[in-house]
Automatic annotation (TrEMBL), chain A:
Record carries keyword Kinase: no
Family in the record: Belongs to the complex I subunit 3 family.
Source organism per UniProt: Altericroceibacterium indicum
Role according to the record: NDH-1 shuttles electrons from NADH, via FMN and iron-sulfur (Fe-S) centers, to quinones in the respiratory chain. The immediate electron acceptor for the enzyme in this species is believed to be ubiquinone. Couples the redox reaction to proton translocation (for every two electrons transferred, four hydrogen ions are translocated across the cytoplasmic membrane), and thus conserves the redox energy in a proton gradient.
Protein name: NADH-quinone oxidoreductase subunit A
GO cellular component labels: NADH dehydrogenase complex; plasma membrane
UniProt xrefs under InterPro entries: NAD(P)H_OxRDtase_bac/plastid, NADH_UbQ/plastoQ_OxRdtase_su3, NDAH_ubi_oxred_su3_sf
From TrEMBL, chain B:
Enzyme nomenclature, EC number: 7.1.1.-
Membrane-protein topology: Multi-pass membrane protein
Transmembrane segments: 6-24, 31-50, 56-78, 90-112, 146-167
Similarity comment: family membership: Belongs to the complex I subunit 6 family.
Protein name from the UniProt record: NADH-quinone oxidoreductase subunit J
Catalytic activities: a quinone + NADH + 5 H(+)(in) = a quinol + NAD(+) + 4 H(+)(out)
Statement: the UniProt record of this protein carries the keyword Transmembrane: yes
GO MF assignments: NADH dehydrogenase (ubiquinone) activity; oxidoreductase activity; quinone binding
Domain of life where this protein originates: Bacteria
Physiological role: NDH-1 shuttles electrons from NADH, via FMN and iron-sulfur (Fe-S) centers, to quinones in the respiratory chain. Couples the redox reaction to proton translocation (for every two electrons transferred, four hydrogen ions are translocated across the cytoplasmic membrane), and thus conserves the redox energy in a proton gradient.
Major localisation: membrane
PANTHER family: NADH-UBIQUINONE OXIDOREDUCTASE CHAIN 6
Pfam families cross-referenced by the UniProt entry: Oxidored_q3
From TrEMBL, chain C:
Name this protein carries in UniProt: NADH-quinone oxidoreductase subunit H
Species: Altericroceibacterium indicum
Gene designation: nuoH
Transmembrane segments: 14-41, 88-110, 122-143, 155-176, 196-215, 256-275, 281-305, 325-343
PANTHER family recorded: NADH DEHYDROGENASE SUBUNIT 1 (PTHR11432), NADH-UBIQUINONE OXIDOREDUCTASE CHAIN 1 (PTHR11432:SF3)
Reaction(s) catalysed (UniProt annotation): a quinone + NADH + 5 H(+)(in) = a quinol + NAD(+) + 4 H(+)(out)
């Protein structure tokens, strides 16, 4: 059965880690105001573009290939998600489970081969 | 007691961040609230003892699906005026969908509390194997009893992959000559350079 | 540890709570110290490989260099660009650092010395490491500046590409160990190689997986030769370009904490964790934690060595390696390993 007392430390850890990193971000902001290091100016707060004023908005459309990578990643991630329970229950499912998974991997392999053939995995 | 407190914290956070998903003005903020909602849902899953599902929720939804969402909204040229117009246009449809969902929930809860259904109880179909972790129980059921459903899930994934490629992949007109790594690695200094010692005042023929 | 606090006269709940807090601090604080020291070690190793001296001014042998750097960034001004999305700009380093710390919650440092001994430990690590991408993407987007944005996109695509093959590699390990629990995976490696070598690397089917894991680990943590996210010749400093002060340092610390985590995972999954290298009685005299530390440090040396010697990959080479070589190979080995186990162990 699931031992919930093993998860409580993770929750406490999360709170402590968030607190620590929050402290690290906000404490120096206060300290720099006290020490006088905090002197913002217009040029200092401008975004970095090798010394030039920014040419155009920086958030513009990017290549659709990044999408394709993300979608392929979702699919292979799901495949891996199916593999995790399979990997620890092979002794319970035996050959039937193994063959099932091989058929499943075969299906995905067809898709992978298609992606490869279409050049979806190419970058230049 | 901690169990109860944790449940209420997680549940409240799920609902609050869910509400913020639809009220946030910036779509990127919406996606981030959605991620927070997924997280707290994973916390709820841990509380009911479904640790494997909780981890899957984080790996698949937070780690993969939400990354795609983030890509999509980051790529959108955000135009708030247009979004507001769209909101008014789709408002009746949204209300209709919400009503359908609410009525389905009422039906489902009503049917469940009426007790006419056996949702994974008593007859042993859905009960976990005794003394096994739930990841092993899921494995034993999924790759034994529900083997064909699992295979059809594989087919759905295949269709999704092919569909994604068909929709988003474009042939690039200017494909540069792809590098042949094998050829590059096999290239030796002798293939490209010669070592000569010309006499003084005389050049060499290349 | 709970028993110790109980002996001080607390009731069980309080003793457990105090023990857990102590455990967390015992992981988080030495980890931060280790990161500070490992940055120094890293610089010393590169220096030695380039026939330089490296940091040698602050403190004996320059040992205090990282602390001096830390103090410096701590006293600096936090610059928030006027075009930036302020809240998210500050949240991004918090996410990065929190995620880098959280993964250590399930790491077994020695027998029984693990904060949260959960059944799905390896999945937990995979889940947490898949969150690392958010710190990068949010910082790149919130900066509202071109270089960070490009870097964030690159980093996101790179991290998710290598996560795929890491997932399949982990499945090979889980198949062999038959469990998801990290402590049990370590115990399964006892005498795994010819009955004498403690570790999965001494196994013809898992050795290639270890090699892939080592390289994927470098790509996943955006460590050289895969540090395209901060390729200074193209992207200035990558997604951290607009950051300053501790917000910048948190990215730095988080990155090194992740590198250490990858080293620790190499140790835990393939080199027998806290077990001595050979399954011989006399070696068990040395405490497990020392073995764990030595092995992890060895892997850190390997990471450093690679960074000092291997030139940076190009982005197309990186994606090609991930999708066209690592992914098919790790899938093939899932089939091979499971097939072998079906024939010998479960069949």
């Amino acid at each position: 059965m699931v031992d919930l007392t093993q998860y409580l430390p993770i929750l406490i850890f999360l709170v402590i880690a968030l607190g620590l990193s929050g402290l690290f971000v906000f404490l120096p902001m206060g300290v720099s105001r006290l020490t006088g290091a905090h002197k913002p100016s217009k040029d200092k707060l401008a975004e970095y573009e090798c010394g030039f004023p920014a040419f155009e908005d920086s958030r513009h459309q990017f290549d659709v290939r990044f999408y394709l990578v993300a979608i392929l990643f979702i699919i292979f991630d799901l495949e891996a998600a199916f593999l995790f329970p399979w990997a620890v229950s092979l002794d319970l499912t035996g050959w039937a489970g193994w063959i099932t998974m091989m058929v499943f991997l075969g299906e995905l392999l067809i898709g992978f081969a298609y992606a490869w053939k279409k050049g979806a995995l190419e970058w230049e | 007691m901690i169990h109860t407190i944790a449940f209420y914290i997680f549940a409240a956070m799920v609902i609050a961040s869910g509400a913020l998903v639809i009220t946030a003005r910036n779509p990127v903020h919406s996606v981030l609230w959605l991620i927070l909602a997924f997280f707290n849902a994973a916390g709820l899953m841990v509380l009911v003892g479904a640790e494997f599902i909780a981890m899957l929720l984080v790996i698949v939804y937070v780690g993969a699906v939400a990354v795609l969402f983030l890509f999509v909204v980051m790529m959108l040229e955000i135009d708030f005026a247009e979004m507001r117009a769209g909101f008014v246009k789709y408002f009746p449809l949204g209300v209709l969908l919400a009503l359908i969902l609410v009525s389905e929930m009422i039906l489902g809860i009503g049917a469940y509390s009426a007790g006419s259904m056996h949702l994974g109880t008593a007859d042993g179909v859905g009960t976990p194997l005794m003394g096994e972790s739930n990841i092993r129980s899921i494995g034993a059921l999924l790759y034994g009893r529900y083997l064909f459903l699992f295979e059809s899930a594989g087919l759905v994934l295949l269709v999704a992959m092919v569909g994604a490629i068909v929709l988003t992949h474009r042939e690039r007109g200017t494909v540069r000559g792809h590098q042949n790594i094998n050829k590059q690695v096999r290239r030796r200094p002798g293939d490209a350079t010669v070592n000569t010692r010309p006499e003084v005042g005389k050049g060499i023929e290349l | 540890m709970t028993a110790f606090f109980e002996s001080l006269g607390m009731n069980y709940e309080w003793a457990w709570f105090v023990a857990t807090i102590c455990g967390i601090l015992l992981i988080a604080l030495p980890l931060m110290l280790a990161v500070a020291m490992i940055i120094y070690v890293d610089r010393k190793i590169w220096a030695a490989m380039a026939l330089r001296r490296g940091p040698n001014v602050v403190g004996p042998f320059g040992l205090l260099q990282s602390f001096a750097d830390g103090l410096k960034v701590f006293l600096q001004e936090t610059i928030i660009p006027s075009a930036a999305n302020k809240g998210l700009f500050l949240i991004a380093p918090i996410i990065t650092f929190t995620v880098a710390l959280m993964a250590w919650a399930v790491m077994p440092f020695a027998e029984g010395a693990v904060l949260a001994d959960i059944n799905v430990g390896l999945l937990y690590i995979l889940a947490i490491s898949s969150l690392g991408v958010y710190g990068v993407v949010i910082s790149g987007w919130a900066s509202n500046s071109k270089y960070p944005f490009f870097s964030a996109l690159r980093a996101a695509a790179q991290m998710i590409s290598y996560e795929v093959s890491i997932g399949f590699i982990l499945i090979c390990v889980i198949l062999w160990a038959g469990t998801n629990n990290l402590s049990d995976i370590v115990m399964a490696q006892k005498g795994a190689g010819l009955g004498i070598v403690n570790g999965f690397f001494f196994n013809i089917l898992l050795f290639p997986m270890w090699v892939l894991f080592l390289i994927s680990g470098m790509a996943e943590t955006a460590r050289a030769p895969f540090d395209l996210t901060e390729a200074e010749s193209e992207l200035v400093a990558g997604y951290q370009t607009e950051y300053s002060s501790m917000a910048f340092a948190l990215f730095w610390l988080g990155e090194y904490a992740n590198v250490l985590l990858m080293c620790a995972l190499n140790t835990t999954l393939f080199f027998g964790g806290w077990l001595p290298p050979l399954d011989i009685g006399i070696l068990y005299v040395v405490p497990g934690f020392i073995w764990w530390l030595l092995k992890t440090f060895f892997f850190f040396f390997v990471f450093s060595w690679v960074k000092a010697t291997v030139p940076r990959f190009r982005y197309d080479q990186l994606m090609r390696l991930g999708w066209k070589i690592f992914l098919p190979m790790s899938l093939l080995f899932v089939v091979l390993v499971s097939g072998y186990l079906m024939l010998t162990r479960y069949g």
